[in-house]
Specification:
The protein is an all-alpha fold. The chain has helices at residues 4-32, 36-65, 77-90, 93-97, 103-126, 130-158, 161-165. The chain has a single domain, classed as Ferritin.
Length: 177
Amino acid sequence: MGDKKSDLSQALREALDFERKGSEFYVQLGIDTKQPLAKRLFYNLAKQEIDHIVRIEEIFDALKRNTPWPEFKAKDIREIEQEMKKIFGSLDKKARAQEPDNKDGYQLAINLEKQGYEMYRKFSGKATDEREQRFFSSLAEEEKNHLTALDNVYYFLTQSEEWLSMDESRVWNWMAT
C-alpha cells in the first residue's frame, strides 16, 4: 500500500464518484418508473446516496483542514424500513398492486448496491486506522440495507415465492398484509 493519506484520498474519490453515479441513476430510475411504490423507493435511495456524498465530502474537508473526522454510524435497516412502511401506508391498495415496470432497472439497482457493498468492504479491509474502517464499514452496511429494501419491494411487487421463502430477518412481513 502506498502513502496512507493518498490511499485514503483515492478511496474517497472512488466512493464519491460511485455515490454521484448512484444518486443520478436512482433519480432517473424514479423518473422512468410508473409503479408508485417503486418510484418512491428509487427517490428515497437517491436521497440516501446524496447523504453518502455529503458524508464523504465532510471527510475530505476534515482531511484538507487536518481536523477530526465527523463520527458516522450506519443507518439502521429499521429506519429505511420505517420510511418505506410510511410510503406503503400512504398508497391505496390499487397503487400498491400496480404491476411493476422497469424490471431491468431493479436488476441494475440490485447490481449497483452489491457493487457498492463489495467496494466498501474492500476499503474497510484496507483501512489503516479504526475511523477509516468504521466509516467504510458503515457505508457497506447501508448499501446492504439498500439491497434489502430493493429485494423486499421487488419481490412484493412480483409476488414471488422466493420473497416469501427469504431469510425472515430480511423480509418485511408487513407488506404481505
